[in-house]
Please model this.
Amino acid sequence: MIITYTAKNEIASGHTAGNIYQLTVGAARFEHSMESDSQTTTSLDKKNRETISYGYQIPISIETTGIAPADLDNWREWAASVIGGEEFSIDASGAVNAPAGSFLCYLWGNITGPSQMGSAKYWRYSFKVVPT
Model:
């Protein structure tokens, strides 16, 4: 899996805001799901309930495979860049600089990670995205 983004911050040493970067990592999980976007209103006496449906989204749940400690600064910079709603692209099956099926997306919710993988010295991130 290749994630391509434009740096919005200068967290990792040697990186410059405004430059385009690519992160390459395996995907331990890449699952589509369907989530509704609705609002439910309940009366004060709890007897009446009204739900208004605004449609649905099909987010993709992604969990990375192991990330080496030396690469964590790059992943922190990615998280800081996209957490505010900036678009980035994901290519689940292509090679660097030769995309096979990349798509633009934005983050859906929070990023979990970096989380240490058991007793190993590797880390992982989990997040959801919605294609644009």
